[in-house]
Amino acid sequence: MKGLVENRKAINMNEVVGSHDILFICLDCLRYDVALAEQENGGTPVLNQYGPWEKRSAPGNFTYPSHHAMFAGFLPAPIEPTPMTKKNMLFFPKGTGMGMAVPPNAFAFAEATFVQGLEKLGYETICIGGVSYFSKRSAMGRVFPSMFRQSFWQPSFGCTVKESPDKQIAKAVSVLAQVPEGKPVMLYINFDAIHYPNYFYLDERHGEGGTGVKRDSLASHAAALRYIDQRLPLLFAAFAGRGKTFVIACADHGTCYEESDDGHLFHGFSHESVNTVPYKHFFLNH
Questions:
Q1: How many domains does the chain have?
Q2: Per the domain annotation, does 235 fall within a domain?
Q3: How far is 35 from 50, CA to CA, in rounded Å?
Q4: Is residue 232, in this structure, part of any structural domain at all?
Q5: Which of 4, 178, 248, 249, CA to CA, is 20 to 30 A from 281?
């Protein structure tokens, strides 16, 4: 698999920053077990090219806290209990009161987020929103977009629209084409297709005997992931055409469905299916 070595060894972000574009893909709500199953059965051939998913611990149990942590440099952590001093962080917030030296391979930033730290170094920072926390329709919905120089959201990017990944990628490609040659880019995209509702990625008659019940399930969750995977080549090609690109791909949290034997549904609480997420990083075109 491409990227397998890069995904397993420590990445020196001080060599990446300034010489590479950075693409941060959030597969909102993606469960680790579903991602692993699709990896193993060949359902995600595009993502499979770049190494296996790592099993990691989500930094939050729903979008808002998880993204505050991730944009501050606290990406999904190794699933094994690991002291902060032992974590191989890509981005490190200086002056946080943790009393630690900056890890040698981490990109250290003094700003509120690593996104703003990259902007200070000349990166064009771009956000392609998805779930409502990126919609800019409320004060809370403007918090994350305000961290970027450019941010975009429209109703067709929302999780109720089956073609939302197509619309998001088309916008990302269009915006990338307008960035001046030689200016590095950090682009974040929040794919919300996997978030509920996702039943429409299967036959809409999904249900016992094709009864027309519109019900999200592990099967439609997986189908949404496959839908995104099929469309990633267009996004990857746009970055490959610009030069070297470092990619971070992960979920912000997982979710529960009716298949859960303990009666839990969706997310926003501590549960193994919510707290465990897939993660990988890789170089797109080395």
A1: 1
A2: no
A3: 14
A4: no
A5: 178
Cβ atoms 232, 42 nearer than 8 A: no
Contact 119, 150 (CB under 8 A): no
pTM for the complete prediction? 0.90
Calpha distance 203→73 (Å, rounded): 39
Is cis: bond before 59, omega within 30 of 0? no
Q: What CATH number is attached to the domain comprising 153? A: 3.40.720.10
Bridge partners of 56, per DSSP, are 78, 277
- Alpha-carbon distance of 167 to 57, in angstroms, equals 30
Beta bridge partners of 189: 25, 128
Are 150 and 126 spatial neighbours (Cβ–Cβ below 8 Å)? yes
Structure tokens at 242: 């610009």
Residue 179 lies in a domain: yes
Separation of alpha carbons 247 and 47, rounded Å: 11
What's the half-sphere exposure (Cβ side, CA atoms, 13 Å) at 151? Answer: 18
Query: Of 192, 215, 194, whose CA–CA distance to 205 is shortest?
Result: 215
Question: Would you say residue 128 lies in a domain?
Answer: yes
Which range marks the domain in which residue 86 is found? 4-227+240-283
| Token pair of 15 as six digits | 């060599």
Going residue by residue through the chain, which has 286 residues, state the pLDDT in tens, using 9 for 90 and above.
Answer: 444 334 456 789 999 999 999 999 999 989 999 999 999 999 999 999 999 999 998 886 788 888 899 999 989 988 776 666 666 789 999 877 555 677 788 999 999 999 999 999 999 999 999 888 888 889 988 999 999 999 999 999 988 899 999 999 999 999 999 999 899 999 999 999 998 888 888 865 444 444 455 787 888 899 999 999 999 999 999 999 999 999 999 998 888 776 655 666 565 456 566 789 999 999 997 5
DSSP E strand stretches across the chain: 21-27, 54-57, 77-78, 91-93, 107-109, 124-128, 150-152, 185-191, 245-250, 276-283
